[in-house]
Amino acid sequence: MNDTFLKACRGEKTDYTPIWMMRQAGRYLPEYQKVRGNISFLDLCKNPELCVEVTLQPVGILGMDAAILFSDILIPIEAMGARLEFHEGQGPLLPDRIRTGAAVDRLVVPDPEATMPFVMETIRLLRRELKVPLIGFAGAPFTCATYIIEGGSSKTFWETKKLMYTQPEVFHRLMAKISRTTLLYLLAQARAGAQALQLFDSWAGILAPCDFERFALPYVQEIIAGLQQTGLPIIYFANNGATLLDLSVSSGADVIGLDWRINIGEAVRRVGRRAVQGNLDPFALLLPKDELRRRIQGILDGAQEAFGHIFNLGHGIHQFTPPEQARIAVEAVHELSCRRP
Ligand SMILES: Cc1c2[nH]c(c1CCC(=O)O)Cc1[nH]c(c(CCC(=O)O)c1C)Cc1[nH]c(c(CCC(=O)O)c1C)Cc1[nH]c(c(C)c1CCC(=O)O)C2
Question: For binding substrate, which residues are annotated in this chain's numbering (predicted)?
Fold first, then answer.
């Protein structure tokens, strides 16, 4: 069992810096494309045997030190009663566009075991196969709220901010319902065998710090407090979150995810006695090998004084990344971080 990742999360000494990549199971891998050729994305998410297969791919092919459950942050939103569709070549579509108090009241807080049994089954099956730790995950409430309110991805987040500023009571009611759902869902993942849990706050960075503090952070704190009973390391990743870093630390997470826009040495100083995860620009995987290795060395050097460091990209791996480049990065992190006596 390779538990380097879990040790780094807890700030324990490791022989080398562990690495995994956000969105490591996905379209850049021909092996994933082959599975996806025969099935829609949503049907894939609901098929435990195939989820196991694609979760294992990046671990086996690229040598990652952790696996992340193959699923999507929008799965529990569908379980709450908002319809979810994926159309080929487009982002997610949630046609119900929840924007009124009455619509929020119609959403339910689902029993995760009853409505998403395929997720827990995937976790149980994976634990029998894996030789590296398994990360479970969910979207953070604010990011989930943007998809529910906008009905999909957005450029301006007009409807989200309109609800937040003009009907704050409705917005908070929606956030409370998503948070309760997320906590129960992550507790179920922990019971099924997840060994660490990550909250993805992909859109936190569109908020002013004062709004993040008022409308988003309290819900993250509530979830993380509720997860303490699991004893599992909790990772909080706020994308575009350099300006929110001090607030992110107050989330209570054990590991603070960093995007690539911040210097990791500066982040380490601000984060203090918590592990950090990051933060190579996903597009830097396109660099020639020598330059890529220098970039990786720079991040390892910057994180030298970190309480713990898990190497990762600063956001998800891009779908057109050559897998060979990801493999070079994994090899470089392992080699360059190897502690020589
Ligand atoms: C915002 C978000 C979503 N999903 C997720 C986030 C947070 C992380 C981030 O900010 O990137 C999280 C996610 N989505 C997926 C995973 C699987 C685990 C992993 O390998 O990291 C994880 C952890 C698979 C996926 N989720 C999705 C794919 C592609 C689906 C396909 O095969 O066509 C995968 C592999 C679909 C998805 N799902 C979502 C979007 C916006 C899209 C479309 C992306 C696009 O079209 O480029 C919502």
Answer: 23-27, 72, 147, 202, 315
